[in-house]
Amino acid sequence: MTQQANFNIQAATDGSVAGVLQAAGGGTANVLEILDNTGTTVGSFSNTGNLLVKPSTGSTAAFQVQTTSGVNVLSSDSNAKLVVIGAGSSGENSPFLARSR
User: Fold this and answer.
1) Which of 87, 77, 65 is closest to 96 using CA atoms?
2) Separation CA 37–CA 84 (nearest Å)
3) What is the pLDDT of residue 80?
4) What distance in Å separates the CA atoms of residue 32 and residue 53, rounded to the nearest whole number?
5) pTM of the model
């Protein structure tokens, strides 16, 4: 497959790690930051492993975990301040639905 990106990393062998990002010994800065086209941080991993997902605009699909067939297992709607476990993004047939007050 031809890769179309500014950089590509491929593991050297089937059993090797493709890449490692490690903070400096006394580091306090984020290990990884993902920026939008304006330079605003929209995602990051902190030096302690905390994950931040912060869309630059409201989104009904701000964060998703899906099955291999594309069905949401976990989803977050930043517009409605809604987290859904076990169903589509609108909560249909969800065994658990959490909404902010």
Assistant:
1) 87
2) 29
3) 87
4) 12
5) 0.71
